[in-house]
Amino acid sequence: MPMLDFKPAALGAALMGTVVTLTLSSTSAEAAIIGGSQLDITGTFARTNSGTVLDFDGSGAGEVEGTTGTFVSYIDTDAFLSNITLSFVSSSGGVTYYSATAVNPFVTLTNNTPTTTDDIIFTVNNPFTIQDFGALGFVFPEFTGTFSDFSGNILGTGTVTFNGRANGSYSATITAVPEPLTMLGAGAAVAFGGAFKRKLNKKDKKGSTKA
């Protein structure tokens, strides 16, 4: 029966790949996949209900423009933002401050398909503060929240950032952030695999010298 001959270096590389694969197959696998993805959306909104609602939903879909990572298939597709309700807090120096709450999911990426099974949704953390500069428009905070698929499986955390002041039209950037533990785990796996491979290479060299 022929014997299988495994070179130490090849074995080290194989083991390194196995370690990384196992790390990314943990409970944070989805976060690792979506983490680092980004897309840009442009669209419009209106102030309705006596000024207490910022209506994104009734203004139609926003358009996905530039994308990276997992979001790349969503370029030139529709993105729907939900409405935001404003509650007056204070006014000072020409700026009005509101405590605001968005209807969740705040953002829905549709991929322009007839089914919802490939939708990605963003659930925002409520409440948050919005500043109203009158004719100069609104300043939105950096929205934080979680991404999930249609079935409710969490894909990771992320942010929605409105670029500049929004006054009837907007430009926003959505970014998915990998979980710190996922990044640490993947980095540790690669480092361990590299160290293990170097150790095996040294042993291989010693064996060759003796021969």
Question: What do these coordinates show?
Answer:
- The protein is of the alpha+beta class and 211 residues long.
- It has 2 domains: 30-178; 180-211.
- 26% of the residues lie in helices and 38% in strands.
- The chain has an 8-stranded antiparallel beta barrel with strand order 1-4-5-8-9-12-13-14. It has a 6-stranded antiparallel beta sheet with strand order 2-3-6-7-10-11, with no helix packed on it.
- It starts with 7 loop residues before the first helix and ends with a helix.
- Residues 1-32 and 181-197 have low confidence and may be disordered.
Rg computed from alpha carbons, rounded to a whole number of angstroms: 24 Å
Terminal Cα span: 25 Å
Cα shape: globular
Strand-pairing-aware structural class:
alpha+beta
Largest β sheet strand count, sense and barrel closure: 8 strands, antiparallel, barrel
Residue-averaged pLDDT:
75
Query: How big a fraction of the residues is strand?
Result: 35-45%
Q: Please report the number of helical segments.
A: 3
Helix percentage: 25-40%
Number of domains: 2
The H/E string reads HHEEEEEEEEEEEEEEH
Give the beta-strand count. 14
Q: Uncertain runs with pLDDT below 50, 5 residues or more?
A: 1-32, 181-197
Throw out a few tags for this protein.
211 residues, alpha+beta, 2 domains, 3 helices, 14 strands, 38% strand, disordered N terminus
